[in-house]
Amino acid sequence: MKIGIVAPARPITQDIAARATAFAAIAYPSVDLVFHPQCFTSDGGHFAGSDAVRAAAFLDVANDPAFGAIWFARGGYGSNRILDAVIPKLGPAAAAKSWLGYSDMGFLLGALYARRIGRPVHAPLVADIMRPNGDASITRALGWMVNKDKRGLEPSIGKQPVAAFNLSILTAMIGSQWLPDLADHVLMVEEISEPLYRVDRMLFTMAQATQLQGIAGVRLGRIGDIQPNDPPWGEEPEAMIVRWCAEMKVPYLGRADIGHDGDNKVVPFGHI
Description:
Blueprint: E1 2-6, H1 14-27, E2 32-35, H2 51-62, E3 69-72, H3 83-86, H4 92-95, E4 98-101, H5 106-114, E5 119-122, H6 134-147, E6 162-166, H7 167-173, E7 186-192, H8 196-208, E8 217-224, H9 237-248, E9 252-255, E10 267-268
């Protein structure tokens, strides 16, 4: 199986690619990881190439029928800037693929799901090989891509359709054409490197969004690397989301095993 790797936001290093390739060669010898050269390009000190370069690389791999899946290299910021350039140009080959990533890649996963293009999956990124428990992390992603191995799935997934997002990405998509219809879905959210007042503000946006009316419930993933508040914030994340779910008039369903860490589980959008 050929898996195409692109970086719609930030670049990765050759060391990351080499480590992921070496691990895949041992754990999944039938897999051929193909890194687009764009993954190692830098533009403006942040992006993996200009918007045009990132869009062109994405379309190169997405519309190539030789690739059975697209695995995003890294998150960061930037994939939203290429949505208009790439989503309308996806052809039949793109519809046959799985698309794996999380964090900033939620922009692409959401846009793909909104148009029912392929199978978007909230799952570990290639660069997660460098995290603690990185080998186990990318094993979950590869296991799903290669043989739909359910052992890496988020354990609460059942008969209801699901979707998972970084909370800041979800709230950035609200009001746009790219947010999918999530009626009857269980929505899982997680966040990283924010003070809790900002998390509360994003939960307000989620709770008030008319586009999210009709969801079946909400699960809370990990809120990691919480930044300090001055004065200190006096409410825990789970209490916050319980309060906002009541405002939203949807059930809070408990925790989800997702987050910006090596334990991040696999969440295929929709039904399994």
